[in-house]
Write a structure and sequence with these properties.
Layout (H helix, E strand, L loop, with lengths): L13 H12 L1 E2 L2 E5 L5 E6 L3 E2 L10 E5 L8 H16 L17 E5 L2 E9 L4 E2 L7 H18 L31 H17 L9 E4 L8 E4 L2 E5 L6 E4 L1 H15 L12 H11 L5 H12 L2
Antiparallel strand pairs: 1-4, 2-3, 3-5, 5-7, 6-7, 8-10, 9-12, 10-11
Helix pairs in contact: 3-5, 3-6, 4-7, 5-6, 5-7
Amino acid sequence: MADLTENICAMVDKQLIEDILKNDYGFINGKIRELDGYDDKNYHITEIEKHIEGIEFPVDGIVLKFINSIDSKNLSLLEAQTKLTQYLENFGIICPTPLLNKYRQSYGSVIINDKMHAVRAYRYIRGETMNNVIVNSEISTDFGSYVGHLTSILKEFNHDGFHRNDFLWALEKSPEVLKYVDVFNQEKQQIITTILNKFQSTVLSKSHNFTKSVIHGDLNMNNIILKDKKIHGIIDIGDVIYSFTIFDFSVSLCYLILHEFRNNNAKLSDVKIKSFVDAYENHYEKLNSLEYSVIHVSDYAP
């Protein structure tokens, strides 16, 4: 299990970014904009002045990703992520695909504060995140269809690199939060403890009955890219893991509900749950009685 007190993020400055762009990719003097991230650092690079290594610069730019020091040690994971993007691309799924550096490699590495960080350049996917739109029945249906379709594709893919039992962000690791619950006030401690104990007793205790496959792991609204109000692609494959197939459905539904409840006056009846579920089942398979029985608890855990 990872040490939660360890700083695993790369400490990055503009000069380091420019050096990597020039030395590994031959890109000179691009515009740099930092993007959101948790354990990884991400920078959108656009409008380079020139390229000197013969590597074509994508029209929409690239994302230069500095991977956290823990995942950077896992070479099998890095390989799995590369293979997965190639696999998804073959099925027409728009996702961040690596841009090979001048050494014909999908990633390089850099030492920062005595820690090794893998560095990748991904093709930037232009569009609007689902977090920035009002989710009506049409978008909810599209979301359910997309999650179902993605699930059916991922179910046929496997790689040892995604079998990471110590990955803290996996949904089945949610009860680990109980070790740190004392940082919250008493009311929140009670809520968190109740939910996670319920998750353990209702979901994890029955997990041997659930199908497992490779899942995206974080299908939240900021990782879904839309164009013209239609889902165009997904980003952020950093949480992909071999886990319980139902969890991608549960996480997606959870974020669909949370998205609606950004409005303080929202009601659960405002969430387009039925259109999402129906579309998911039409593009993947019908949920069985056991899966239906644990959805409400699984949706609380993320």
